[in-house]
Amino acid sequence: MSRFNELLAVGAIRAAERKASYGGALMPEEAYELMQLSDRVKLIDVRTNAEREFVGQIPGTIGVQYLSYSEWAANVAFVPMLKEEHELNEGDYLLFICRSGGRSSMTATLATQAGFKNCFNVIDGFEGDKSEQKRRNCVNRWRIAGLPWIQS
């Protein structure tokens, strides 16, 4: 089995354990490795534009905010933007990431329901869980893992 397929299988097991309706749940390191293995893997950052601009972003991601800041209203054009504006295909491998894993799980579900076949949630997101001191970026995930990111 290729490393690509191994990562997909691990993600599928995690999604099944979580009773998720999308294809898989990946740790950030696994998501990054998957991105390196195929150009059909697309990382979609569903955080708000403000979060990406001020907190930081991952180079090469597709930014499509799911909830607006400050109303937190759902972006009704989310799926059409994936298909039309970003020209993603139903067979692409779509990895969804947000701050801590909630919105990315919702959008992986939404994209799956819209016909995308290979949707994955990046567990714990860009900033991860809060520490005992109630701070993010201390405990886990993309930034803590030392994976590539930039800040404007």
Can you give a write-up of this model?
With about 150 residues, the protein is α/β, with parallel strands linked by helices. The protein has one domain (about 5-120): Rhodanese-like domain (Oxidized Rhodanese, domain 1), CATH 3.40.250. It has 5 helices and 5 strands. Strands 1-5-4-2-3 form a 5-stranded parallel sheet. Helix 1 (about 5-15) runs antiparallel to helix 2. The model has no long low-confidence stretch (mean pLDDT about 90).
A few lines on this structure:
This protein has 152 residues and is of the alpha/beta class. 34% of the residues lie in helices and 13% in strands.
The radius of gyration computed from the alpha-carbon positions, rounded to a whole number of angstroms, is: 14 Å
Helix content: 25-40%
Strand order of the largest sheet: 1-5-4-2-3
Number of strands: 5
Query: Structural class given helices, strands, pairing?
Result: alpha/beta
Question: What is the terminal-to-terminal distance?
Answer: 40 Å
Name the average pLDDT: 91
CATH topology: Oxidized Rhodanese, domain 1
| Overall number of structural domains | 1
Quote the beta fraction. 5-15%
Question: What sort of overall outline do the alpha carbons produce when their principal axes are compared?
Answer: globular
SSE run: HEHEHEHEHE
What is the C-level CATH assignment? Answer: Alpha Beta
Helix segment count?
5
